[in-house]
Design a protein that fits this description.
With 309 residues, the chain is α/β, with parallel strands linked by helices. The chain has one domain: Indigoidine synthase fold (3-Layer(aba) Sandwich). Helices cover 47% and strands 17% of the residues. Helix 11 (242-259) crosses helix 12. The chain starts with 8 loop residues before the first strand and ends with a helix. The structure holds pseudouridine-5'-monophosphate and manganese (II) ion. The site of pseudouridine-5'-monophosphate (PSU) has 19 residues, from helix 2, helix 6, helix 8, helix 12 and helix 13.
């Protein structure tokens, strides 16, 4: 497949020339903006992520769908329009992209949707807060995020603070193993727990800096077409306390059960209940970690670009 987008995929001039010139580019998702964080923090975070990527010397490429056009390089204004409630932007995973284009819909892309687009246009790095994964009630619900299978299909490096702690973290790590997706701790040999810096699970591999992360991704590409997860823990002095986390988690799981939510609504409901029951502290932690991940992704994209030259 060529990397030239057709008219259904619109790459902004800035992003297109950065890709063309082999400069560092970081894809950013919009589900966290439209369905993951409350207003007005959502747009502040979107802007902070873009600023963090730029500060590293890389170019941000925020992905979303407007009127059936997949945009790579949304402006903050366009993101604001997409996040407006009356627009009812859909939550788009990789499988939904073509259908949203055909139906001329608006939508925000998940990690899965974003890396499908990134790989289509030649972007190798993306940043998010917490990856999706295997849900705790998986034996009843069969609910496993398509983020995992997307990482098994697209050769993109994703920086995330582990997987969201609302998930079954051990099962998610097992699935990443089965799917052939390597997990590399950034300056840690512990798998991060999203709102918490340590999920309690150990990692086999870690890197000391962005140069090593870039080298790991390039070497991985010699043997595999899968993606790679760089696990970047939230700073210890920013994490949610263990007590508060566990209480919020219990109430979030309870709430989701009570409402009987399913499918793509599960994660947004759990995150919203976390925000409510921690009086917004979880939102602040989410903000800190996603901006830090965008900054790191920017540095890694720079190192990959340098290594390729
Ligand atoms: N990280 C966050 N907040 C979010 C997400 C990630 O800090 O809201 C989003 C991402 O878009 C991810 C999605 O792909 O949650 C996972 O949704 P699901 O569990 O339905 O696959
Ligand atoms: Mn799901």
């Amino acid at each position: 497949m060529d990397n030239l987008p057709d008219s259904s995929v619109v790459v902004s001039d800035e992003v297109a020339s950065a890709i063309e010139d082999g400069r560092g580019v970081v894809a950013l998702e919009t589900t966290i903006v439209v369905h993951g964080l409350p207003s007005p923090v959502n747009l502040e975070v979107a802007e902070e992520c873009e600023t963090a990527v730029r500060a590293s010397g890389s170019v941000p490429a925020t992905v979303g769908v407007r009127d059936g056009r997949v945009i790579v390089g949304l402006t903050i204004d366009e993101m604001g329009q997409l996040a407006a409630e009356d627009r009812h932007a859909a939550k788009l995973s990789a499988r939904d992209l073509g259908l949203a284009v055909a139906a001329r819909r608006d939508g925000a892309t998940t990690v899965a949707g974003t890396i499908a687009v990134a790989s289509r246009v030649g972007i190798e790095v993306m940043a998010t807060g917490g990856l999706g994964g295997v849900h705790r009630d998986v034996l009843e619900s069969f609910d496993e995020s398509a983020d995992l299978t997307a990482l098994s299909r697209y050769h993109v490096l994703v920086v995330a603070s582990g997987v969201k702690s609302i998930l079954d973290i051990g099962a998610t790590l097992e699935r990443l193993d089965t799917l052939g997706v390597p997990v590399v701790g950034f300056r840690t040999d512990r798998f991060p727990g999203f709102y918490r810096s340590d999920s309690g699970f150990a990692l086999d591999w870690s890197v000391a800096d962005d140069v090593e992360a870039a080298a790991a991704f390039l070497a991985h590409g010699l043997f595999s077409t899968t993606g790679l997860l760089v696990a970047n823990p939230v700073l210890r002095d920013r994490e949610l306390s263990g007590d508060l986390h566990d209480r919020a988690l219990a109430s979030a799981l309870e709430k989701a059960k009570l409402l009987g939510v399913r499918g793509k609504d599960v994660t947004p409901v759990l995150l919203a209940e976390f925000a409510r029951s921690t009086a917004g502290v979880s939102v602040q932690v989410n903000r800190d970690l996603v901006v830090a991940n965008a900054a790191l992704a920017g540095r890694i994209a720079q190192s990959i670009a340098r290594a390729r030259r």
